[in-house]
Amino acid sequence: LFRSHMINTKGYPYRGHQAHRLFSSLRKDPNSDLNLTGNNNDNWVINLLYDSECPLCVKEVNFLKKRDVEQNIKFTDLTALTYDPSNPENGNVDFTTGMKRIHAIKRIPMTEKGNNDYEYRVMDGVEVFRQVYDVIGLGYIYTITKFPVVGPLVDKLYDVWALYRFKITGRPELEELLKERQDKLNKELQSLPDACETDCKV
To answer: Could you tell me the end-to-end alpha-carbon distance of the chain, in angstroms, rounded to an integer?
Structure first.
């Protein structure tokens, strides 16, 4: 199924005009955190949202990057200040949701429309690993997780990992990480010129 929903900005406290100004400023600033992707190929199939501050997650991402010789995977860092949940390629997955469980977005061409439009399918949990490993030719590793008995068990194990991964990796809980992120974004927004100096012209 394709997920269609309104943009949720949990983990990103700004909307509309503020969001546009902040993202534009961060992308123009050479000192800002632009570690959004390790794949500049626009022909990607799956956009993997990952937490670059999670050491185990980074190990997995580095492994996938080495195996992704055809560059079918786009790697998007959720913790980058420039992460934009409203971007369709990010599936409207906000920071909080993405940090609770791993998410990926599969891009599917809508060829019947006769143009370059895409549908974006949002996946989470173990299904992400099935799909990602499949596009790098290692799908057989997760084949067993498709079986009726094994699949639900693996899903439960992942749920436990997702629930305790911050504690396991020695990091603060999500609420604290969310507050730290919002503080950083607040500072970035406050450092921008007054909106009416540049954006309120009629």
So the answer is: 43
Residue 7: how many CA atoms within 13 Å on its side-chain side? 15
Can you tell me which residue has the tokens 């909080």?
A: 96
Q: Say if CB 130 and CB 155 are below 8 A apart.
A: no
Q: What is the pTM of this model?
A: 0.76
Measured between alpha carbons, how far is 41 from 43 in angstroms, rounded to an integer? 5
φ, ψ of residue 34 in degrees (nearest 5): -110, 25
Q: In the chain, which ranges are continuous DSSP H helix? A: 16-28, 55-67, 95-100, 126-135, 150-168, 174-190, 195-198
More confident residue, 4 or 98: 98
DSSP state of 79: T
One-letter amino acid for residue 47 of the chain: N
The string over 60-80, giving b where at least 16 C-beta atoms fall within 10 Å of a residue's C-beta and e elsewhere, is: ebeebeeebeeebbbbbbbbb
Contact 139, 21 (CB under 8 A): no
- As a whole number, mean pLDDT of residues 5-22 equals 46
Tell me how far the alpha carbon of residue 19 is from its chain's centroid.
Answer: 17
Per-residue pLDDT at 167 exceeds 50? yes
pLDDT of residue 33: 44
